[in-house]
Design a protein that fits this description.
By secondary structure, the chain is an all-beta fold. The chain is built from one helix and 30 strands.
């Protein structure tokens, strides 16, 4: 596996956010930044700006929704209906290798711990997907045996949906994403060119046209996968790949390539590592990097941020820098998105409108019991409620001298 493939399998790398000739900065209390994305090109081209002014927008503030009492972290979240959501992760004891699955369910008012299916390894990623409150899926690796095993919530209990068939190298694969594309249509990807598909009767391994690390969709039968593809046969260097499920099979959809200006950079490569689609439109992000230390006057690594407008993937220009790494994103109900990266009290989070204006969200309030210590929020996943106005972020909170604890934050977009 090449350097970028390994990196994107674990992170949503780098996001720089984007500017156009739109209204100027506001502050972090719900402020317009100087970063407004502008759609600038068709696939593979470097066309002129198509930026447009955006309507006034307002921000919201993050609120703590759940904080575990013991050590642990949440890794995934899925919204299964209005006022109904699930989050999965693990708890652990400081100084010990002992760990157990942590499964939470939101009942419309609060998050409650519920029993998780037995036999899954809490030390490896376990992923969630849902097509409704009676159609929730969970996929992880069994212990012992290390076989990938699926479970399905039918509204009253978890039922085993069997072990997944192997493919070469599967023993080292971990589940990077799991999504439903309608009843009895479930897909799992692992960062490579293999996926698993559940058709209502059983699982089968499926070869993809490119490597996939993330999935998104929601409409029955409409599903997207993003990742990377080799620039030439047997060539380790990569460019972004976008794939769409159509007629039961996956096909590559043209997407922009990323190249540094002349003289270029050694071993440059790019990839997409996150995608969020809603109502036929959406966003995907990743990174464009190279092998550092081989030349003088190196270019700067850059974010790969592209937007699907319903017919074409287009680059989004980026002229204002955001923190380096690991943004998570979720599409709202207006063709915009919320993105966040790990940091103190979720202060590194923004709402971006389709025309380009971006607003910085108000951060969480510091924890009273550990002021200034236990307030680092590591974001692992995000998801919107069906109203497209309320977004969840899950992960963990920690700090100097404090053990990480499973955490969930909630943001309500105002003025929508």
């Amino acid at each position: 596996m090449n350097r970028l493939a390994a990196t994107t399998a674990f992170l949503l790398m780098f996001l720089t956010a984007c500017t156009a000739d739109t209204p100027g900065p506001r502050d972090a209390g719900g402020s317009r930044t100087s970063s407004a994305p502008a759609v600038t090109s068709s696939p593979g081209d470097d066309g002129g700006s198509q930026a447009a002014s955006a309507p006034p927008i307002a921000s919201g503030a993050w609120q703590q929704a759940y904080l575990g009492e013991t050590g642990g972290a949440l890794k995934d979240i899925v919204v299964s209906g209005p006022g109904d959501a699930w989050a999965i992760g693990a708890t652990h004891t400081e100084g010990s290798e002992a760990s157990s699955l942590l499964l939470l369910r939101f009942d419309g008012t609060r998050w409650n711990e519920v029993a998780a299916p037995s036999g899954l390894n809490p030390h490896e990623p376990v992923r969630l997907a849902a097509a409704g409150s009676r159609e929730v899926w969970l996929l992880g690796r069994a212990t012992p045996g290390k076989q990938l095993t699926a479970f399905r919530w039918d509204g009253s209990q978890w039922r085993s949906q069997g072990e997944l068939p192997p493919w070469p190298g599967m023993e080292n694969a971990w589940v990077s994403d799991l999504k439903t594309a309608g009843p009895d249509n479930v897909w799992a990807v692992y960062g490579g060119e293999w996926a698993h598909h559940w058709d209502g009767h059983g699982w089968r391994a499926v070869r993809l046209p490119a490597s996939a690390v993330a999935l998104s969709g929601g409409d029955p039968g409409d599903l997207w996968a993003v990742g990377h593809r080799a620039t030439e046969p047997q060539e380790p260097l990569t460019q972004p790949a976008t794939m769409r499920l159509a007629g039961g099979s996956w096909r590559l959809v043209p997407s922009p390539e990323y190249r540094f200006p002349p003289p270029g950079a050694p071993e440059e490569e790019s990839s997409l590592s996150g995608v969020s689609m809603l109502d036929g439109k959406g966003w995907a992000i990743g990174m464009h990097t190279f092998n550092h230390g081989e030349v003088e006057n190196e270019p700067e690594d850059e974010v790969a941020l592209v937007r699907w407008d319903g017919t074409t993937w287009r680059k989004v220009a980026m002229r204002h820098k955001f923190p380096y790494c690991c943004h998570k994103l979720a599409s709202d109900d207006g063709d915009g998105f919320v993105m966040a990266t790990s940091g103190r009290l979720l202060r590194e989070s923004w709402h971006v409108e389709p025309a380009g204006d971006s607003v910085t969200m108000r951060r969480l309030t510091a924890l009273p019991e550990t002021p200034g210590k236990g307030d680092f929020f590591a974001v692992e996943a995000m998801a919107f409620e069906p109203d497209g106005k309320t977004v969840w972020a899950v992960g963990s909170m920690s700090g100097r001298g404090t053990q990480e604890r499973a955490a969930i934050a909630r943001l309500r977009l105002t003025g929508r």
